[in-house]
Design brief:
CATH superfamily of the largest domain: P-loop containing nucleotide triphosphate hydrolases
CATH class of the largest domain: Alpha Beta
Order of helices and strands: HHEHEHEEHEHEHEHHHHHHHHHHEEH
CATH topology of the largest domain: Rossmann fold
Strand order of the largest sheet: 3-2-4-1-5-6-7
Largest sheet: 7 strands, mixed
Pfam family, one: MMR_HSR1
CATH architecture of the largest domain: 3-Layer(aba) Sandwich
Radius of gyration: 45 Å
Strand content: 5-15%
Distance between the termini: 4 Å
Keywords: Membrane, Transmembrane, Transmembrane helix
Protein name: 50S ribosome-binding GTPase
InterPro entries: GTP-bd (IPR006073), GTPase_Era-like (IPR005662), P-loop_NTPase (IPR027417)
Length: 553
C-alpha cells in the first residue's frame, strides 16, 4: 500500500480508506481478547478518520502551536490581517483556540464544530476589499492553539486534543527557547511519522543579529533531525517586517492548493497506529494447533475422566455374563440371570433409539463413577497443554487468551462426556449368531440327558412296582438311556469347556471395540469443547495479523 505515497508525496484516498478498513478488521478480530487500553489508538484512528473524511475535503485545518512568548498569536493575527487572537506576555496568553477561515464560514462550520472551536472564536477572512489577494488561501482554516507549556493543565489538554485533529501543524519557536526539551521530547519527537504535515518556524527572527540567524537555524535543524523530523520545512519568520511572513504564507498556500494535508495526516496516524499494533501480532499464526501428541494426551485424559476404562471393563464383564447365559447349560441359565448385569448397573443400555431424543443430554445420563482427583488434575494439565502448545509462541496477551479459550467450556465437559458415553453404541444390543447355535446345541444335549434320565427312571419305577422290566436298546454293552444321560452331561461340559475360551476372547474383542467407539466419541467432545475454541481463537489471530499486514502495507 506504500505505493499510495508516490514521488510527489501524494496520498491516494482509496488506499487510505483501504488501510482504515484493515484497521477495522483488525479490531473486529481482536475484540474481547486484547485489552482495550492497547487499542485506544486504533479505535481513535478509525473514529477520527471516518469523521474527517466525511467532512469538508475543500478545507485544510492548520494549527499554530507553540510555547508562551513564541509569538504564534502575532503570526496568527499577521496572517489574518486582523487582531483576532490576544497578544501579550502574561502566562497564559491564549487560553482557547481561535479560528480564522479563508472563504465563507458556512463551508467550514461543520469542520470547526468537530474540531471544537466555539462559534464566538471563529472569524472569516473574506472581504471584497481584498480582491484576489487572499484567494490563494481560500479553504484555509487557521487555528491559534493555547500555549502547550501553560500553567493551566486544561490548556495543555486542549492542545493535545486539537493536535490529534488538525491536518497540518506549524510549530512556532523563538530564538530563546527553540531548544527547550518540552517541545522536542513531548511534541516534536512524537510527530516523526507526520513529517509531511509538519512545518517548523523560528519566529521573532528580527531579534537575532543577521550573522547569528544562520547559526541558530542550523542548530535547530540539527535538533529536528535528532527528533526524526529531517526534511521538514524550517522557516524564519517575523511579524514586524513586511516580508517576514512570505515563506510561511507560501507554505500555507501550497498546502491549501494541494488539498493533501488531511490525507497525509491520516496516513501518518495510520503509520503510528499500525506500528503499535504490530507488537500484538508479531509472529505468524501456528499452522497446526495443537500437535498430534498433545491431542492424543488430551483424548487419554478425557477418556479417563469420562470413565472409559470402567465402561469397557463393564462391557467385557457383561459380554461374558450374557454369553455364558446364552451358551451355558439351560438348567443353570436362570442362576446366571440373577447376577446383576455390569452395564445395566452403570445405566448403559445402548444408544437412544427415539429420534426425538437429543444426542446429548444436558444432565448426567449414566452412573459411571465421578473422576478421581488425579484424573481431574491430569485433564486440567492436558487442557492447559493444549493452550500452551497452541498459543505459547504468540505475543502477549494471546497465550493467556488461548489458554482461557481451551478452558472456556471446562464446566460443561462432565455432562458432555457423560452424555457421549451414554449415547455410544457399545455393540452389545445384538446377540451373535454363534450364541444361538451353541445355545441350541446345549439345549439338545440337555434334552438328551433329560430323556436318558427319564428313561432310566421309568425303568427303575417299573422294576420297583414288580412290572416287567424294560429292554433298553444298547450301544455296545451300554444301555442307550445311560448313553443319553452321560453323553448329554459330558457333551454339555465339553461344549462349555470349548466355548469358555471363545467367550473370553470375544469379550476382549467387545471391550476393544467399545473402547474404540468410546474414545472416538470422547475425542469428538474434546474437539468441540476444547480444540474448537482454541482453533477459533488462533484463526482470529491469523485474521488480525492479515488485517495488520494490509493496514501496514
Amino acid at each position: 500500500m506504500r505505493e499510495a505515497l508516490r514521488g510527489d508525496k501524494r496520498v491516494d484516498a482509496d488506499a487510505l480508506v483501504a488501510r482504515l478498513d484493515a484497521v477495522r478488521r483488525f479490531l473486529d478480530a481482536v475484540d474481547g481478547e486484547v485489552p482495550d487500553t492497547r487499542l485506544v489508538g486504533a479505535h481513535t484512528l478509525v473514529e477520527r478518520a471516518g469523521t474527517r473524511l466525511a467532512l469538508s475535503r475543500d478545507h485544510t485545518v492548520v494549527a499554530l502551536a507553540g510555547a508562551t512568548g513564541s509569538g504564534k498569536s502575532s503570526l496568527f493575527n499577521s496572517l489574518a490581517g486582523m487582531e483576532l487572537s490576544p497578544v501579550g506576555v502574561r502566562r497564559p496568553t491564549t487560553g482557547v483556540a481561535h479560528a480564522c477561515v479563508w472563504g465563507p464560514l458556512d463551508g467550514g462550520n461543520r469542520l470547526l464544530d468537530w474540531v471544537g472551536v466555539l462559534p464566538r472564536h471563529r472569524f472569516v477572512r473574506e472581504s471584497a476589499l481584498d480582491g484576489d489577494d487572499e484567494s490563494a488561501l481560500h479553504g484555509l482554516i487557521l487555528l491559534d492553539l493555547p500555549d502547550f507549556d501553560s500553567v493551566q493543565r486544561s490548556h495543555r489538554l486542549e492542545v493535545d486534543r486539537l493536535l490529534g485533529l488538525v491536518d497540518l501543524v506549524v510549530w512556532v519557536v523563538d530564538p530563546q527557547k527553540y531548544a527547550d526539551r518540552v517541545i522536542h521530547n513531548s511534541y516534536l519527537r512524537e510527530f516523526h511519522r507526520h513529517r509531511e504535515v509538519t512545518v517548523v518556524v523560528l519566529n521573532q527572527a528580527d531579534r537575532l543579529p543577521p550573522a547569528e540567524l544562520p547559526r541558530v537555524l542550523a542548530d535547530l535543524r540539527r535538533l529536528l533531525d535528532v527528533d526524526g523530523l529531517d526534511g521538514v520545512p524550517l522557516l524564519a519568520t517575523t511579524a514586524v517586517e513586511p516580508n517576514g511572513m512570505t515563506g510561511l504564507r507560501e507554505a500555507l498556500e501550497r498546502a491549501v492548493s494541494d488539498r493533501q494535508a488531511a490525507l497525509r495526516r491520516l496516513w501518518g496516524d495510520a503509520d503510528s497506529v499500525t506500528a503499535a499494533l504490530g507488537e500484538l501480532v508479531a509472529v505468524e499464526a501456528p499452522g497446526h494447533t495443537p500437535d498430534a501428541e498433545t491431542i492424543r494426551t488430551l483424548d487419554r485424559a478425557l477418556a479417563d475422566a469420562a470413565g472409559v476404562p470402567t465402561v469397557t471393563a463393564a462391557v467385557e464383564g457383561a459380554y461374558r455374563q450374557r454369553a455364558g447365559a446364552a451358551t451355558g447349560w439351560p438348567l443353570v441359565r436362570g442362576w446366571r440371570r440373577l447376577r446383576p448385569d455390569p452395564l445395566r448397573r452403570l445405566h448403559l443400555t445402548g444408544p437412544a433409539t427415539d429420534p426425538q431424543q437429543p444426542a446429548q443430554a444436558p444432565v448426567a445420563a449414566t452412573s459411571v463413577p465421578e473422576p478421581t482427583a488425579a484424573q481431574q488434575s491430569a485433564l486440567g494439565l492436558a487442557i492447559r497443554a493444549v493452550g500452551g502448545r497452541s498459543g505459547g509462541d504468540l505475543p502477549a496477551p494471546w497465550p493467556a487468551a488461548v489458554t482461557a479459550a481451551a478452558r472456556s467450556r471446562l464446566a460443561d465437559l462432565p455432562d458432555a462426556l457423560d452424555a457421549a458415553v451414554a449415547a455410544t453404541d457399545l455393540g452389545m444390543e445384538r446377540r451373535p449368531l454363534w450364541w444361538r447355535l451353541v445355545g441350541g446345541v446345549q439345549w439338545l444335549v440337555t434334552l438328551a440327558a433329560v430323556v436318558g434320565l427319564g428313561w432310566l427312571a421309568l425303568g427303575y419305577a417299573l422294576r420297583a412296582l414288580g412290572l416287567p422290566a424294560l429292554e433298553y436298546p444298547r450301544v455296545g454293552e451300554t444301555p442307550l438311556p445311560t448313553v443319553l444321560l452321560l453323553g448329554g452331561l459330558l457333551a454339555g461340559l465339553l461344549v462349555a469347556a470349548v466355548t469358555g475360551p471363545v467367550i473370553r476372547w470375544a469379550a476382549r474383542r467387545a471391550r476393544q471395540r467399545a473402547e474404540g467407539r468410546l474414545t472416538e466419541e470422547v475425542a469428538r467432545v474434546g474437539a468441540e469443547y476444547v480444540l474448537t475454541p482454541v482453533r477459533d481463537l488462533v484463526d482470529r489471530y491469523a485474521l488480525a495479523r492479515r488485517a495488520w499486514q494490509d493496514a501496514a502495507g
